[in-house]
Design a protein that fits this description.
about 220 residues; Arc Repressor Mutant, subunit A; 2 domains
Amino acid sequence: MNLRRTPAVSGLRTITVSLVEDRTVVRESLRALIGGTDGFACLGAYGSMEDALPGLEANLPDVVVIDLGLPGMSGIDGIRLLRERYPRLAMIVLTVFDDDQRIFEAICAGAEGYLLKNSPPSAILDGIREIVDGGAPMSPAIARRVMELFRRFQPPETAAHNLTPHELRVLKMMAEGDNLKTAAKKLGVTANTVAYHMKRIYEKLQVHSKAEAVAKALRQGLLR
């Protein structure tokens, strides 16, 4: 992966990032990219989830970038564990795997973004910014696969947790990568209105985050 430094948007606060990647060349390239870009700071770079856990506990970042093909504990199991420990932690998958099973499992485990390793450096940085802003960054090929997954799932016979058609639309927009601001613009309402709808969705689905809401909707076939 050929990574080069790309300037971040000036005037923004520093986004702290930790990396979990077993390949030394990739890990050090990502560390250099993030640490060498204005507006970003790399708090830690680990070769396995077992090494990462104590480091993350001591110094929790805004975002963790996680490979799936890790030695020892898998990236998916690590995401699931981190989601349990840190419900608000933003996690992006960065991997070579683009098969449906891993995509589905990673999202259900709690990942809020899914990027492929052939993504340009600017796309990786943009994805980190986007997830901090409440988005769900995905490589274009992954977004298409996610939409295919949506189409395959049939809605359950029982009521969809009493979600209204509008709430389902908002949830689908979030699953497709929108954040509060972009969803509000598309719907012609304020970001506070979208935030209110998301709060109601969380209550009805009995979840605490967008990632959990999307994962539960995927598992139960609520999104078409």
